[in-house]
What we know:
Elements: E1 8-11, E2 17-19, H1 20-29, H2 31-38, E3 46-57, E4 64-70, H3 75-87, E5 94-98, E6 101-104, E7 115-118, E8 132-137, E9 143-157, E10 163-168, E11 184-186, E12 197-198, H4 200-205, E13 213-215
Parallel strand pairs: 6-7
Antiparallel strand pairs: 1-2, 1-10, 3-4, 3-9, 4-10, 5-6, 5-8, 8-9, 11-12, 11-13
Amino acid sequence: xxxxxxxxxxxxxxxxxxxxxxxxxxxxxxxxxxxxxxxxxxxxxxxxxxxxxxxxxxxxxxxxxxxxxxxxxxxxxxxxxxxxxxxxxxxxxxxxxxxxxxxxxxxxxxxxxxxxxxxxxxxxxxxxxxxxxxxxxxxxxxxxxxxxxxxxxxxxxxxxxxxxxxxxxxxxxxxxxxxxxxxxxxxxxxxxxxxxxxxxxxxxxxxxxxxxxxxxxxxxxxxxxxxxxxxxxxx
Length: 235
């Protein structure tokens, strides 16, 4: 069986293209990134520990992000970012599992099978290099992510609470009927059929038409629940 081709993305700093793992190594050595880090911040900046996070869909790894965030920012800020760039559709609950504790929005008052806490906690109290953190959005039609703490550094931080360093480019998807670039998925077919990707013209001729169609977006939540994007960074 042919090995599946890994998705690639571009470094925000230098524009060079790498796979998810290659990007992790590149960011540690990128001279343009180092130049940006060495530049004195304009105005007030805060010093502290800054974490490099690699986020990916838990099962395929085709969708991925490389992020940085300082240790004083809270889990709820990371949750908000992931919702904005990848997940938010219907205001579902979500949660991180860290050291056997589930950090979420709605606590059960100690009646559940695991310890629960809210997300109002600084990530610097929880994160350490090498950790792999499971994350779930929507406990019905669940999107599962893995957040890896790649490394940490000491530095000055200014601006947005989270910075995007790299992101996968959407893989090339072809229409099942004509082979042209696909624009839509058939939500009814994608779970039990081999053919579920369609261009707009072929979708009109498909047995389900546009009734079950959802747009193709660069997100692991594509085709799930009511998610239609826009799958864009929030800042």
